[in-house]
Design brief:
15 helices, 6-stranded mixed beta sheet, alpha/beta, single chain, globular, 8-stranded mixed beta sheet, 526 residues
Length: 526
């Protein structure tokens, strides 16, 4: 794959032989908002009134509304689209309470033109996505889903859409990560097709209709987007999500330039959690070729005043849950790090907290090992008072404790699955308690990355016995095969209906307040 990385904002400028009849199109885009309806703090969890007063908050739907309204005015009479690359669902009490209704209402008011289906749109099964699609007026698309056997979604989620903008037809196609069957709950009737094969077919269909300007609006992650840009001919732009990647020419946190070029195809993504709105302007010649791709994500910091009407509606919808959010449950002596770029690669403070809390809750039941998928950890917690709202932002999925029994070999297999996708920073990475393990990332996935597993016996660490039976605790999502943990589906004596994981964690912090986050070497990478 040939990739060209350029660092200037003018990422692609081809002027030689440029046709006189130029067509410009500006795309504003968001991805992975994850129900951050309210503004967020620097840890990507809900900001408070004090933070707003001090100018320390970012994002929130009211800031997105302000920014996009201002851009509509600035670009009046010009060609303009507003796109979302999926996962507005799941991640705050607004989703827990309203199950997509808040996201639908605010995205409708913001005025999106097209949205891609993200994996978390299936968190409440096809019915949850159906309700959202029926509520919004803009098309929701995903080209690599065969929905012919799913009556709730058949005919409602389109393969692609063609929009007329400034007299030109713009085709928008989409693909959703095929591992959504592991990371969410699409059900047995939703069939996933290969992303690249599906996108190639949709490009061909659009080109047969005379559409020459084609955008891929994907929810597959940056690595796959780069692969798609290299291997799907006919694309003019790839707008991505799923990996929560910041591409930027100005931020020192950026994973690459904005846009990142793969050959002549620009690829963009704008982090997550409503913190940025991406802005890319394409210039086409009269043959439909992109001659320029320029832009930069716009940081929605305190300089962007939240839209007053939308802020009032957010407050109104937030009122029923405000009491619970504000309830102080404990104190943290320091930041509890739940950053996905840490917890999905190594032992982290939030992972230890949640795994320790699970094991502590059920230790009197003969359970000795806890495994928590890092994808279930959605934020960090700042030092100081810890509210229930903060805990629920970290653990928003309403997962319950599951206890079960499996062999030592099954535990090893589970850990092997957990470290199988570290290159892609996937959520299956295991945070643990009651065991220690060492892995070697240089070994091929599922080919023996797990080098050593130790468990506690009679007060001492000893090698795990593959033939012995161990009692485990996890969450009901993992126990039922989520994030690739299919080896747990047939566990013995499984009970999936324990207390809510967020409640268990809150009680554990309170019991150990002021809680001090820590790591102790329970996970080692060679």
């Amino acid at each position: 794959m040939f990739m060209r990385f350029l660092t200037s904002a003018a990422a692609l400028a081809v002027t030689a032989g440029m046709a006189s009849a130029e067509y410009k199109l500006t795309i504003l885009h968001t991805n992975d908002i994850h129900s951050r309806i309210e503004s967020i703090n620097k840890y990507d969890s809900t900001c408070n009134a004090e933070g707003e007063a001090e100018g320390k908050c970012f994002g929130g739907v009211a800031r997105i509304k302000t920014l996009i309204d201002a851009k509509r005015q600035e670009l009046a009479g010009q060609n303009f689209l507003v796109l979302d690359a999926g996962d507005p669902f799941q991640g705050s009490l607004f989703y827990t309470t309203y199950k997509g209704e808040a996201e639908a209402e605010f995205m409708e008011q913001i005025g999106y033109d097209v949205m891609a289906v993200g994996n978390h749109e299936f968190d409440d099964g096809p019915a949850g996505l159906e309700k959202f699609v029926d509520t919004v007026s803009f098309p929701v698309i995903s080209g690599n889903l065969d929905l012919t056997s799913e009556p709730m979604l058949k005919g409602k989620v389109k393969n692609h859409v063609v929009l007329e903008v400034g007299g030109e037809k713009i085709g928008i196609i989409s693909a959703l990560a095929v591992d959504t069957v592991d990371t969410s709950s699409p059900g047995d009737n939703v069939v996933f097709q290969d992303e690249i094969d599906s996108l190639k077919a949709d490009v061909a269909a659009l080109e047969a209709e005379g559409v020459s300007k084609i955008i891929a609006l994907n929810h597959v992650g940056l690595a796959k987007d780069l692969d798609i840009a290299a291997n799907v001919p006919g694309l003019d732009l790839v707008v991505g999500g799923h990996s929560h990647t910041l591409l930027s020419n100005t931020s020192d946190r950026a994973a690459g330039p904005y846009p990142t070029m793969v050959g002549d195809v620009p690829v963009v993504q704008a982090y997550a959690y409503s913190k940025y709105v991406g802005e890319i302007t394409l210039t086409f010649d009269d043959a439909g070729n992109v001659t320029s791709a320029m832009g930069e994500p716009i940081l929605l910091d305190a300089s962007v005043e939240p839209n007053a009407a939308m802020s009032a509606r957010v407050s109104e919808m937030g009122a029923p849950i405000e009491e619970m959010k504000k309830r102080v449950v404990a104190d943290a002596a320091d930041v509890i790090n739940g950053d996905r770029n840490v917890c999905r690669l190594q032992e982290c403070g939030m992972g230890n907290l949640v795994a320790d809390a699970m094991l502590d809750r059920v230790a009197d039941q003969g359970i000795t090992i806890a495994i928590q998928n890092s994808g279930g950890l959605r934020a960090s917690i700042d030092a100081g008072e810890v509210t229930m709202g903060e805990v629920l932002t970290v653990l928003p999925f309403q997962n319950t404790l599951s206890t079960f029994q499996v062999s030592g070999q099954t535990v090893i297999d589970a850990l092997e699955n957990g470290v199988s996708q570290i290159e892609e920073v996937k959520g299956r990475f295991p945070q643990v308690a009651g065991l220690k393990f060492t892995f070697d990332g240089s070994v091929a996935p599922n080919e023996g990355r797990i080098q050593e597993v130790m468990v506690m016996k009679d007060g001492a660490w000893v090698p795990i016995d593959p033939a012995a039976t161990y009692g485990l605790v996890s969450n009901n999502y993992v126990r039922n095969g989520g994030d690739g943990y299919k080896m747990f589906r047939d566990a013995e004596n499984a009970y999936d209906f324990g207390p809510d994981l967020a409640d268990v964690t809150a009680e554990y912090i309170a019991k150990n307040a002021p809680y001090t986050a820590y790591t102790d070497g329970r996970i080692t990478q060679k």
